[in-house]
Amino acid sequence: MLSPDRLSLPGPEYLAQRHVLTYMEDAVSQLLENREDISQYGIARFFTEYFNSVHQGTHVLFREFSFIQATPHNRASFLQTFWKCFRTVGKNGDLLTAKEYHCLLQLLCPDFPMELTQKAARIVLMDDAMDCLMSFSDFLFAFQIQFYYSEFLESVAAIYQDLLTGKNPNTVIVPTSSSGQHRFRQAPSECSPLDGVEASLFYQCLESLCDRSKYSCPPSALVKEVLSSVQRLTFYGFLMALAKHHGINRTLGALPDKGDLLLDPPMDQELEKLLSQVSGLSISTPSSSSGDITNLSARNSSRMTSPWKPLHHRQKVDIEGDGSTDETDSSEN
Amino acid sequence: MVPSKCRPGGARAGPSSVNNCGLQLVIQTSSVAERNKPFEFRINKDQSSFHNRLLQHDLEKNYSGKQGDGRFLTPLVRNKQVYVPVAANLADLSGLELKQGSGYQSAFGDSSVHTPTKFRTRQGCHSAGPSVSDNIHFGSNSSVTAFPIPHRVADEKILNSDRLTLERQKLTVCPVIDGDEHLRLLNFQHNFITRIQNISNLQHLVFLDLYDNQIEEISGLSTLRSLRVLLLGKNRIKKISNLENLKNLDVLDLHGNQIAKIENINHLGELRVLNLARNLLSYIENLNGLDSLTELNLRHNQITSMKDVDTLPCLQHLFLSFNNISRSIYHCFQLIIIYINLLSWAFGHLSQPEPSPKLPFHRHLSGDFDNILCLADSSSLSDITLDGNPIAQETCYKNTILHHMMQLRQLDMKRITEEERRMASVAARKEEEKKRESHKQMLLKEKKRLTIGNIAHQWEIQQNRVALITSSDQDKKDSDSCQINGSAAYVFPEETRSLDTILSDAVQGLSVLDSHLVEVEGDTLYLYGSGALESLDRNWSVQTAGTVTTVSFMFIEFDEIVQVLPKLKNRFPNSAHLKFKETNILMLQQFNALAQLRRIEQLTVDPQGNPVVHFTLWKYYVLFRLNHFNLQKINGSEVTQNDTIMAERLFGILAFVASSELPQYRLLSLLGESRKKQFCYLLEAKGKKSGIVSEESNDSRRVGGENANRAVLNYTTKDFQTEKFEEVKERKNFCQTYIQDLVKEAADINMKNESLQKLWPQMFIELVRDAVIEIRNKNSYMKLCLQRITDQK
What we know:
Number of strands of chain B: 22
Radius of gyration of chain B: 52 Å
Number of strands of chain A: 2
Shape of chain B: rod-shaped
Largest sheet of chain B: 11 strands, mixed
Strand content of chain B: 5-15%
Number of helices of chain B: 27
Radius of gyration of chain A: 22 Å
Number of helices of chain A: 18
Largest interface: A-B, 75 and 77 residues
Strand order of the largest sheet of chain A: 1-2
Order of helices and strands of chain A: HHHHHHHHHHHEHHEHHHHH
Oligomer: heterodimer
């Protein structure tokens, strides 16, 4: 399980790189926050629960945005949670505006920034007519790209802009978020005559970016695949292609394939239970109360059979999970 | 037509008695006694002797119990200078009775000035009147087309050289009167004359009676400069005109015509009596210049308003019966007045609701009778009739009139007693108080309106500011939309936009106004502006608090409302309907906050100022989140079972995930303090894992009213959130350093450990080698050991 290269780095750096420190800090912070409650059932149990939930990806529920975006795992977990909770909205066929999707996001993360939602909407709508209605799957995949790779995308925007204006993109330093934003606002208007940049050149730049970047990037092979199919492309065209690419979705592992997006049998089962409860609520109270218990006991069962999670991703999570558990033990002692 | 002339016999019989009674004297003719003197038409203004004659008619009417229109009242009635000459002239009396029976009056209700003529005709038995027709022979009796030339018997001519009566002669044109240039009195009553002509040579004519003809235009009078009495009643005149030269006109009777406008009479400075009854007038106007006018008869018109009446210095009698005078005008001015009052009130003069006389509208403030009360200024007015007007239907009509027109002696033909006057003033005062009260009410209403407007304004400003702040954080595109959001100007429903200029003044004055408003109306508690929330701390009476079932929030940030919700729950336990308007509900999660209330049956979220309502899912989310309240209505529409199921279908998983996937410690921290206990209890029950999951635990959760899985969905206001973040940040920093230290320590230990691991094999070998070397020589080693033992001892 332990990756062999863990010994190639000094301990602290390795831990930081794998975000172990982040989780440890958060665990202690949570411990402090809920001191009284936790003291009732033991610190050891708390740490077990905490890292279990990290492992399952349920730790991001209702957490603050800074934590949610802190690690790739958190991001993936958030995406998965979002999908799980609001799949029904998509299933119902509702088309919603960016603002409304934002509201849904805020139900899970109260301080989720509007900016990200809007950027995701821009990908779907190709930077046009922001008040349009979007389907759940369109939004979700665009949002996935935007949220998971947000730093990468900012750099891409800067590179794209530089390519458009004819500068040598290699001189470009990875921009701060604000400056990147400004550039990419100008992009559409200026690119219209040329209609984008040359794909191969763009790919070269992106490849070097992926090598340099300390943030998560899509695998360069997949980027190459996306870019190789066309001669020229625009920024939003590129993002759209990324969003629709199955491979990237699989790499992230947070969401099922597009075809299966609306399917989640275990959850549907639970939902059926809830529904029967609601419709039977007025008739028999006992049934509903037993339903409550089902809910709670389901806590454990669902923990065991953690819902949809592709193999590829699981491996990654396990690495982190195990590493942090080790640390937890040491700090506990 | 002049009685003195017509009644020569009677007068002759007892001239002194005639004088005594004064009834028959139309024109004070002392010459009655000396008949040879030329007729002297003298009108004595001071004595208003002319009225003596006219009064007679009035008297008749009073006797006959009818209230005709053609009534010329004089002060003499009151002065008791006039009474029926019982002893003096029995014939007169009989004449009166005759008339009473004849019903003639009703036919000519409006006839006023000409009555003496009638009178005379009635009295025909002893007057010369009827004989006129006998004595005069028309030159061409048969031909109507040619101008007839009356030939009078010489004897008659001598007798009445200055008067000519040609009534009921079926004349269609004015006869040419020749040789009678000195004629002073001419009577063409009851003919069919269509045009006034052939009389321009009668330069001395003083009295012209054309009553009951078919004249369509006033004309042919320009040469009659000495004319003083012009009677044109019951004709077909449409326009008052061609009176320019009749500067000496004293009496002008135009009743029973088709006149629609008062005009061209401003030069008649001598005019004392003007009769315009039974015309088509709707306004009284153009009366200035009539400086001598004492009597104005405007009965049976369609008058709705009047002006210039108070410019008549001598007006004493004003007859306005059977018109259309009402309070209507009052209403037009009312709003303006309110604003003016409000203005003054805003500057702190509320204690003096009585307007200062300088206010141009004060007249209208004095009551609903403003239409009439402009007459109050005309101090000479002593007699007025207003019966038959809408205004007279008002309950306080008489009192108000009397109160405001102290100089009045007679109202609607009835004398006013002191008692009445006193009662009137008392009643009027009461009325005024009542009015002031209602006025105050209106002011309060207005104040409320303005306050709400003010709150709306402030809210708008605030929204704009918020929008600006947020927009500065976002890129321009976003800010645009925010701007639109914020500047969606709050247009207050207002019907009086036209008064905006006044309003804006008033609003400026009111800038010190409260920025909030609390109001209980029926079972609804209205809260306007964020300051109003403080009122929840107030000591509400149990009764009031109990009756409030609806709470309406306007112009308050939802986050602020959230903070007072617990108070609301306690103070108004019966409130089951919440209304939100302009409260900035932006997100679905904000509805979470409402879950803490005790009960909600109805929820109304106005789209105005609450963007969340534009979301398609908001209703379902509310239903889902506030599921435990069993909401009956959302925004006025009934909640159906299907809605509830749909809500569950959409958000059920969210609740499930929330409850099933949260680690326990988080669940506890997310549940509020209040619910924690129950939940702990539940956990314990669960912890026991006893097959029978206790019923009580479920009950206790029912008491909480809310499914725990939903309770996790909380809403924290922004302030609280940032506060919490500060706290979290601090803790995070601490944790960071703490963990770093730990990690460093652990890494150190690890490093040492690793170093030890590296060294250990070597060390071990060394140790072993040393030991081996030591024990290589068994004997020497034994010796050494023994030596050590002995040494120890």
